[in-house]
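Let's practice the habit of predicting before peeking. Look at the sequence and jot down your guess about where helices and strands might fall. Then scroll down.
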Amino acid sequence: MIAALQELRGGFFEGYIVNVIDVNQHPPLEAKWGDKVPVLLDGDVEICHYFLDKDRLASHLENLEKRA
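Done guessing? Here is the structure:
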């Protein structure tokens, strides 16, 4: 998923920060997300897991912009 996100640099993804967290190093996160790793979150909101869903990410970012 990291590689897929890196491919999106620029475009609709411009201006957003991605923090990569190793779930295996954080037991509470591993307990919550362990079977859905990799997972892409915005705070506590799950955007997608296993594979990057570009359409769902774009929709999520669009909704954030509408709220701003």
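How did you do? Residues 2-67 form one domain.
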